[in-house]
Amino acid sequence: MILIVDDKPENLISLRIFLEQSGFAVDEASSGEEALKKILKTVYSLIILDVQMPGIDGFEVAEMITDYNKAKDTPILFLSAVNIDKQFITKGYLTGAVDYITKPFDPDILLLKVKTFNRLFEQTNQLKKMQRSLKREIEHRKELESKKDEFLSIASHELKTPLTSVRGYIQLIERMLKREGAHPQILSHISKASLQINKLGDLVADLLDVSKIASGKMEFTLKEFRFDKMAVEAIESLQYVHQDHIMVIKGFSEIIVYGDEMRLEQVMVNFLTNAIKYSPEGKEIHIEMIHTDHELEVRITDFGIGISQKLQDQLFEKYFRVEETSVRFQGLGIGLFICSEIIQRHNGSCGVESEVGKGSTFYFTIPLIPLQVNS
Ligand code: ADP
Questions:
Q1: Whole-model pTM above 0.90?
Q2: Nearest Cα residue to 62 out of 105, 95, 13
C-alpha cells in the first residue's frame, strides 16, 4: 500500500484517484503528524510526501522515520513545487530509495517512479525473507551437526567399553587354547576373530577422535623423541602383516622431533595403511624422510589407484571418500581428516600429489623446534 501525504485535500483526492486507477492500494494523511502516526502502525511500500506542509514538513517526516524500524526500508517520493537540491533530499533519509517530482507532475513520470519504487520495495522484502529463511536453515543445520557430533561421541564411548572387554577375553581364550594345544583350525579362527576385533577397535578409536576434534578436546602430550625410530617400528610392524607390499625406506637418519609421539605414529600408520589399501596389486611403498634444520617432511608413495586432480583438495575433509572407489575399498573417510588435524596441531601441513592409475604421494611437514641446550 502507498501512503500519500499532502495538506491540500484536492491534491490528495486527485493523486488517490490516479494511483487507484493505476492499480495501487492507497492510504492518505493530511499532515506530517498524521503521516507519522500511520507510519508507526503500517508498513507502506512507498510514501509520497508533499514537501511544503504547515507543521512538520515533508523533509522533517522523512528525517524522523529513518529511525523507525517499520519504515526504514520504505522508499520516499517527494512532491515539490520547485526543483529540490538532491543533496538536501538525501540528507535525512539514507536508504537511497528517495526521489522527487515537481508539481504539477507529469502522470507518466509519476507512474514510472511509483512502479519502480514499488518493485524495489518488493524485491527488498523478498531478499529479506530469503535472508531470514537462509539464517533459519543455517541454524537448523548447525543444530543437526552438533546433535550428530553428540551422538557420535556417546556411541563411540558406549562401544569402547564392551569392545575392550571382548578383546581381553579373546586374548585370554587364545592363550588358553595355545597352552592346551588346541586344533590349528580353532587357533586360526580365534586369531581371525582377534584381527577383526582389532579393526573394530581402530574404527571406534577413529570415531572417538572425530568427536574429540569436534568438541576441541583432542589432547596432545608433547615431548622430544626419535622420530626415525618410531617411524621404522611402525613401518616394520605393518610390513610384518602386509607381506605382499615391499616397504622401501629412503633418507632415514636420526632425527629428534618435539611432538606427540603416539599421535604422529597414528599419522604414519594411517598414511601407510592407505598406501597399502589403495594399491591392491601389491608393489612397493616408498617412505622418504627429508629434513632441514627447521623442518621435517615425510613422504609416503604408493603405486596404486591414484586420485584425480579435481578431488585432491577435498581428501582431508571430514567423511570425504572418492565415490567411484568407495564400494571397492571400505572405510569411513575420517582417517585423513584426523591426520590433518594432528599435523595442524603440530603447526605443520599435509598434502598429496597423485595421478589416476599411477599412484599417490601423501606427505606431511612439521617444524623442528631447536633443542634447548642447558649451559
Ligand atoms: P578411508 O580410507 O577410511 O575412506 P581416509 O580419510 O583415510 O578414509 O581417506 C579418504 C579418501 O581418500 C579415501 O576414501 C580414498 O578415496 C582416498 N585415499 C586416501 N589415501 C589414498 C591413496 N593412497 N590412494 C588413493 N586414494 C586414497
A1: no
A2: 95
